[in-house]
Amino acid sequence: MIMKTTTIIILVVVVDVHLVEAVVVVVVVVVVVVRVVVVVIIVVVLRVVVVVVVVVVVVVVVLRVVVVVIIVVVLRVVVVVVVVVVVVVVVVRVVVVVIIVVVLRVVVVVVVVVVVVVVLIVKVITLK
Questions:
Q1: What keywords are assigned to this protein (predicted)?
Q2: In Å, how far are 34, 50, 122 from 44, measured between CA atoms?
């Protein structure tokens, strides 16, 4: 009887030791896996966050530069167009005024010449 009890106790102790070892191994594996997964998740999330932040910053900077360039280019074009329009208007007015003045001078000269010629003709006719 003592032999049977000792064997059972030894078997129970052996089984319990193996069970404890198995549980310890499982717990260690689970803890290591969880730590690795958490570290990987943190690293991946941090990388994604860094990439997103960098992309957002680059997009914002590029958009600002593009907007500033567009505004500068548009303003330059507007200034050039306004200057060209003003120059054209001024030149056209000057040309029109010059043409009117020249035409008026020519008309006045022609009228004076015609009047003088007519007067001379009339004098010559009346003198004969």
A1: Membrane, Transmembrane, Transmembrane helix
A2: 15, 10, 114
